[in-house]
């Protein structure tokens, strides 16, 4: 087989193939930021509830009678 000279420019053909290639999908950052924000808000809500909640007493303390 002999090499035949082509009328097409190889550099132009490579550029055309690159332009016709399917675009790579980009990663979306908004779902990750939304999940992180929701986690931060829920952590703050639980921390506030722990600070504002009254202390838990598991046994009743009776004062000695007279």
Topology:
Elements: H1 10-20, H2 30-52
Would you kindly provide a brief summary of this structure?
The chain has 66 residues and is mostly helical.
Describe the structure.
There is one protein chain. This protein has helices spanning 10-20, 30-52. The chain starts with 9 loop residues before the first helix and ends in a 14-residue tail after the last helix. The chain is mainly α and 66 residues long. The chain is rod-shaped and about 115 Å long.
Query: H/E order of the elements?
Result: HH
Q: Low-confidence stretches at least 5 residues in length (pLDDT < 50)? A: none
Mean pLDDT: 85
Q: Give the DSSP E fraction (strand runs of 2 or more residues).
A: under 5%
The gyration radius over C-alpha positions equals: 35 Å
Please identify the structural class as seen in this structure.
mainly alpha
Number of helical regions: 2
Number of strands: 0
How is the biggest beta sheet arranged?
none
**Assembly annotation:** single chain
Q: Tell the overall outline.
A: rod-shaped
The percentage helix is 40-55%
Key structural traits:
2 helices; 52% helix; 66 residues; mainly alpha
């Amino acid at each position: 087989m002999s090499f035949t000279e082509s009328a097409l420019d190889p550099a132009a053909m490579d550029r055309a193939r690159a332009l016709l290639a399917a675009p790579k999908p980009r990663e979306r950052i908004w779902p990750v930021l939304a999940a992180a924000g929701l986690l931060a808000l829920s952590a703050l809500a639980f921390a506030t509830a722990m600070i504002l909640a009254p202390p838990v007493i598991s046994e009743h303390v009776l004062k000695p009678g007279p």
